[in-house]
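Sample intake sheet
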Amino acid sequence: MKIKAFKHLISHGLLLAAISSLLLTESSARKWTSADGTKNFEGELLSYDPDSGAVGVTLASGKPMKFTQDKLSEADIAFLKEQGKVEAPVAGKPAAGSIDVDTKDLLKPHDGKPANMSKPVQVFILLGQSNMVGAGKTASLEAAVKQNKKYPYLLDEAGGWVARQDVRNVRVMASGSGPWKMFNNEWMTVTGKTIGPEFGIGHALGNAIDAPVMILKSCIGNRALSYDLLPPNADGYEGNRETPRKPKEGAAWYAGVQYDGDVKAALDVLGDLNTYYPEAKKYEVAGFFYWQGEKDCGKAEWAEAYEKNLLLFIEALRKDFDAPKAKFVLATLGEHTKGCGNKVFDAHMAVDGKDGKYPQFKGNVATVYSNPLSMGGSGNGHYGGNPETYMNVGEAMGKAMAELLKN
């Protein structure tokens, strides 16, 4: 069950009924009982305000729940009063604590150790269109690694593709808001015919963070931010007033339909955490990665609205994943150069927390200038399928995220 769905239940006084339907397995959390004694659930106390009676609990799945103490048994209320006021921790900060790894050490070969499963899984959600999905050819990557000795951390001691036991690689895909499909659910290792930037990202963050890491990719190709991925806090699709953000009943496609589908698919995965990260008990959405813009470049009104919609997109993701402090890293399109005058490129650079123009993004948003990292070609042409472009951009994005988390 999704976070937003729980919030809806809370507002209607149905929290305990919803919780009673959860099947919670191994947990060291406290057992709580409803006021009438008929329902139980397990969770760790997150916060408590004796004055208002507000209670915050983290379920075994990692989802935070909020309700008032009158929903609980007398024994639970007595326990809360013994604890006194409990302040909730700051959201979005990785449980592993501050990152003190130098960026030059982020891409060393993995030491082979599994993750510390006592810590919450640090989830990084990858969004965008076809180049985030990935079109780098695995066959060419194998030649680059094994013959040209590039990206040596991708290999194990035996010369095969390393499978990290501390980084989970999960990829799902929805077409619009319809049912989604699962394409990857495995330890971080090279499989299939194509790759995206997830390997550079995953290895960098796996080396940087002393906690289990999940790379969760939820995206599909040929989608525009200013239409298909339009966030729910946007007024509506400006280029066509007949297709508003909130569709008419029965509409198959509408502005924002892919945003809704991508977010739902990712939340569904997190709602079934143990299936996608074995033995995991909790998670925190620590950051977002975004590589997109090709389709918006093809339509003047989409490109014109891109910067405004990008601001709303960052804001909406943090709200919908209940991660207000989560970091955000995006990459420009490889063919765009500084001073090119492209509206989408200008928007990408504008939100950079270091050199952009929005003070609220300082220290929590970073833009990777990918032109020097690209091996040629354009985003629309998938950079000729050259896997080195995807590896280079992924490495840079992973390093940028590590710097944001470190600071």
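Comment: Residues 388 and 397 are 14 Å apart (CA to CA). The chain has two domains: 3-83, 103-406.
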